[in-house]
Amino acid sequence: MPIIAVIGAQWGDEGKGKVVDLLAEKANLIVRFSGGDNAGHTVVNPYGEFKLHIVPAGIFYAHTVCLIGNGVVVNPAVLIDEVNQLNERGVDTSRLFISDRAHLIMPYHTLLDGLEEEARAGKALGTTRKGIGPAFADKIARLGIRAGDLLDKEALRERLGSVLDYKNAILTKVYGADPLSLEKVYQDYCRYADYLAPLIRETTIMVAEALDRGELVMLEGAQGSLLDPDFGTYPYTTSSSPLAGGGCLGAGVGPSRIDRILGVFKAYCTRVGSGPMPTELADEVGDMIRERAHEYGATTGRPRRCGWFDAVAASFSSRINGFTEAVITRLDVLDTFSRLKICVGYKLNGETIDYFPGSIAALEKCQPIYKELPGWQATISHIRKYQQLPAEARQYVDRLEEIVSCPVSIISVGRGRGQTIFRGSNW
Ligand code: IMP
Predict the structure, then answer these.
(1) Residue 174 to residues 130, 142, 169, 177: CA-CA distances in angstroms?
(2) Which domains does the chain show, CATH number per domain?
């Protein structure tokens, strides 16, 4: 049986939560493979509305094992809180496990994320301040503490002691902040260890065994491809790879095992946080999209920047991920517009370009070149068959399909599981 990867194709918030919740019915195992609780996966299902930050969106099905992969950074307090909240609302989380290799977000990571942002002043990255960047920096600097370290409390104290000396020096000497108490942090993490120890596993074996049994495995992406530290709008990016390739690393599977890569695109663009976004609409059209779609961050509540669909960015995203299929979400948000625009190229220094520049200095100068299409001006959220969509809506989707160079196999026309149009025989 295949692995299906569900990947954010723009700047995050494309609706991956809904897609995973929907497809998880058929999956036996789901792995979150990147990011941390900076993610906010909104899911609306018979249990109610949820904003999941760290628990995989497959948790709502009794038969689905959910893994937090080695590529995720885990804030144990946030995870425990989320699990408790799910349990209180009747959701069984007994099939949730964490990779022993997943790095932990420590209190100094969240503190430093805030202090670093404040020090950047006008050049702040607009991070979620959840400690994500500092935790991934420590992973690469070999200063990280991993979930598996919670299983040996003596070793944990020793490791924490040496790392905390260094972190306290930075907190006090660089930022003039108060130092953290080793005893307090250690005791807090021992309590988390007592709660989480039964969940901590060698998860790559679980994935391999599921595949050997012929089960369907799903890789659940977080954030979006244009926030990738290599290919996104660096330095206005996140700190782990949201790409399909990141799925291999963050779940512990080889590229040859992934059969289907679903790129999730919103029918328009949004971005939260700083950094270039060529099609951003700082006008009443952008406001209309934001209010109609309630485009406010699921994690931070910040208003999202809204704009037209960017075909240049979309085809770049499709290329670097190797999407085999695309999912278009929130098509219904465009119901009221008489004309729709798609950005088909950029004007840069008087030249027309059709590629996504690697330099943000260049990207910041790019002016969108639009192609207009007619709107459908009709309600589509009740439609379940592609052929029943208004001709203009089909024309819009067909245009997106050409841009991303792969079939659009799912179209979402509302928040609920049922408000979905499946295309093709692959479902
Ligand atoms: P960080 O991941 O918290 O370090 O934030 C870095 C950038 O990624 C900021 O612009 C955030 O707004 C953005 N970001 C992080 N997570 C998400 C997400 O789940 N959706 C959308 N943007 C995100």
Answers:
(1) 20, 21, 8, 8
(2) 3-99+200-261 (3.40.440.10), 103-196 (1.10.300.10), 265-422 (3.90.170.10)
Q: Name the token pair of 115.
A: 């202090």
Q: Over the stretch 323-380, which tens digit does the pLDDT of each residue have? A: 999 999 999 999 999 999 999 999 999 999 999 999 999 999 999 999 999 999 999 9
Spatial distance between the Cα atoms of 234 and 358, rounded to a whole number of angstroms: 8
Q: What separation in Å is there between the alpha carbon of 291 and the centre of ligand 1?
A: 21
CA distances 231 to 150, 191, 226, 368, Å, are 34, 39, 6, 20
The residues near 10 (Cβ < 8 Å, ≥ 6 apart) are 224, 225, 226, 265, 266, 269, 270, 271, 310, 313, 314, 317
Q: CA dihedral defined by 198, 202, 206, 212, rounded to 10 degrees?
A: -150
**DSSP secondary structure code for residue 189 in this structure:** H
User: Among residues 41, 53, 103, 109, which one is catalytic?
Assistant: 41
CA of 128 to the centre of ligand 1 (A): 6
Identify which of 133, 121, 342, 147 has the alpha carbon closest to the alpha carbon of residue 223: 133
Q: Radius of gyration (Cα) for the chain, nearest Å? A: 22
| Token pair for 137 | 């920096």
| pTM confidence score | 0.96
Residue 154, C-beta contacts closer than 8 angstroms, at least 6 positions apart = none
| pLDDT for the residue numbered 424 | 85
Active site residue 13: yes
Residues with CB under 6 A from ligand 1: 12-13, 38-40, 125-128, 130, 132-133, 222-223, 227, 236, 238-239, 272-273
In this structure, what DSSP letter does residue 147 have?
Answer: G
What pLDDT score was predicted for residue 126? 94
Residues 273/248/113/151 CA torsion (nearest 10 deg): 150
Task: Tell me whether strands 103-104 and 73-74 are parallel, antiparallel or unpaired.
Answer: parallel
Supply the DSSP symbol for 418.
Answer: T
Q: Where are the beta strands (DSSP E) in 53-116?
A: 65-68, 73-74, 96-99, 103-104
Pairing type for strands 325-329 and 408-412 reads parallel
Q: Let me know if 103 is a catalytic residue.
A: no
What is the spatial distance between Cα 114 and Cα 214, in angstroms, rounded to a whole number? Answer: 45
CA atoms within 13 A on the CB side of 294: 6
